[in-house]
Amino acid sequence: MSNPMKGCTAVHHTRLLITLSELCCQTTNYSLAASHLLQCLSLCQQHHFYYLAAMTMMHLAQVQLLLSLPHQALSLVDKSITQVLAHGSEYDKCSVQLLLAKCQLACTKPQKTDKRKE
After folding, report:
1. Which of 8, 13, 56, 97 is the most buried (most CB within 10 A)?
2. Structure confidence at residue 1 as a pLDDT band (50, 70, 90)
3. Three-state DSSP class for 67?
């Protein structure tokens, strides 16, 4: 049996796993998306791909947000946002800031309003 990843560099493999996770999110298969992202994170740590690991954590935070786990997503964003803001493209920086805002908004509880009877 041949290896389908033969001739593929580790960077290509990590980018492929991120793309597969995005596809899984589009089909609402979040558990498979998380599985691909965790495999990607392991590969990034093995090869010391710090920026790709940070982007993988951002994608994992997005999956957690989609699974209604905003506090865990916010924790992941806080751990990796510095790496992305320091080394990312403008698109990545804006995407991470939008994700941060979504997480913070999801973490806030709706406030009760007092309606005064006049």
Report:
1. 56
2. very low
3. coil
